[in-house]
Amino acid sequence: MFMCKAQIPRIRQFVSTCTGPQSSRCFSSYGNSYAGGDGKNYGESVRSYPQYTVFGENCLLSLKILLPSFRISRNNVLSLDNSKKGRILLEFVPRLADGTTARDQHIRFGLSAEEVGLLLDQLPSHEVELSRRSPPPNGELGLSASASLSSAPAKVLRITPGEGGTTTYCIDHETDGVGGQIPFSGSNNVAGPLEVTVHLGEHIVMTEIMRSSIPTLVGWTAMLDAAELKNMEDAKAGVGKYADKPFDNYN
């Protein structure tokens, strides 16, 4: 089990949250004032929604991030909440004939840090397939939990390399290999499939975003920054674990 802890000082407020049924961690709020390009001050809390979007012929694909959650103990020690680790979120949204999008018909698929690593290792040489199962809500179908889970359509993500450096991202709900199924729960009951062809330049941008996000997904970046800040404050105060002992003792 991954676990990392850092004792932290009091620092500027940082909050990660989101509006929406799937995620509570898809925007960041920083406790710093921000002056926009128009010279106006937008207050002490600025929200940001990092995303990269590829517009396909019949569907758009947005790459988003769900930030990890943390806990602070009574001893002012910061640790990662292992039940809410970060995710890279792939969101598929259908495009209508008039060029608008059907936002309420989206299908989402969250990738863990380990799945992101697998994807980066396998592409563009090999196809990547990942799946999820969600049981019927409230014991629908009158089956046991295990039977309900096994009978539920699987949400399947396939990423397939193509010609000319293209990559096809396809999401669907399948039962026994048959696609176009209506899910029991989640995904707004959208059956699929939804598919986007990503060109080489777009694919490189997406993979670089994923690669650089891995330390953030596992909480490494935030806790390393907090630990470093604490060490600097201890150094200013003349305290800390290296204050009275040779550094060589820790090699």
TrEMBL record:
List the InterPro entries hit by this protein, alphabetically: ssDNA-bd_transcriptional_reg, Whirly
Q: Does the keyword Transit peptide apply?
A: yes
Q: Which GO terms describe its molecular function?
A: single-stranded DNA binding
Q: Which UniProt keywords apply?
A: Transit peptide
Q: Can you cite a GO biological process for this protein?
A: regulation of DNA-templated transcription
Q: Where are the transmembrane segments?
A: none
Which family would the database say this protein is a member of?
A: Belongs to the Whirly family.
The molecule here is called: Uncharacterized protein
Instruction: Give the originating organism.
Output: Phaeodactylum tricornutum (strain CCAP 1055/1)
